[in-house]
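Re-run with default settings, no changes from the original entry. Doing this only to confirm the output is reproducible before filing.
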Amino acid sequence: MNLVRLLLSPVRLALLSGLPMLAAMSTPALALTPDAIVAADGAGKYRTVREAVDAAPQITHDDGRRWTILVKPGTYRELVYVQREKRFISIVGEDAEKTVLTFDLFNDYKGPDGRNIATFRTPTLIIDADDFTVENMTIENAAGPKGQALALRVDGDRVVFRRCRFLGWQDTILVNRGRHYFEDCTIVGATDFIFGGATAYFERCQIHVAGNGYITAASTPDFQAHGYVFDHCRITGASPSVKTFLGRPWRDYAKTIFLNTEMSDVVQATGWDNWKKPQAEKTTFYAEFNSTGPGAKPEARVPWSKQLTAAEAARYSVANVLAGSDGWDPAKQGSAR
């Protein structure tokens, strides 16, 4: 399938319906010397992202090096698995809108044994490595509304995404474990499209709701200090008829916070849902601070959610949420900008 056909496909047009262009999504001019180049037309050393990842060296300790894979504009229909040993690698696209990694597996897809492959085998991209970075890429599961269909699964620690687009419908992104930072990204979906038990920080991201459902479904472990934090983000909807909740608890100790977020009227007035688990109302931590827009209705939110004070909100900085015991600072994790 060529790039023009894919960009105009019914599934993608439906997902991107009503999505305003973000200035933050413009891709900066790249000033980097890549270690490997991927080009679908054969102009690079590799034709697929998977080949380039598989060929990258196994850098097992931080000596200041990063192996950079530059991906030229094109449509890469493939499944990519980044194994644990592939640390300190950056995948950098030239243009997020034109550099598309896509596949279309979904929960009920039949495997070679004739049985459903199930949710966790559907991701287009799986990152199992620590210290990994992806920039200026579209990561897509093009299955559409067929059930659970992941674009991304992250199991590594200290993983960064900058100026990326994540397109899906149900379960677009699984942040399974570790610490992850999303900066200036666009995330599209309908049902539980950001889910999992990791600590994840979303800064200046656009959350675009393609259909009725729930934005988040955190499964934060009870011993973990933080779940998801959204700071200076925007929530938009595909049409005036689309409605969404900010989140519901996949597990009973779900933690999700929205700070300084502009919310369109796509957001339900009550804000949060208990997933028909009233006991979770006592153990989840759902909170907001300084929400704006027609979807920001603090007086109508469910009583078991929280409106933070300025002092409380200040505790949820990138440094406080992501530093951990090793003092990780995602700003120091190499950018192509």
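Residues 1-8, 21-27 have pLDDT under 50 and may be disordered. Residues 152 and 173 are 5 Å apart (CA to CA).
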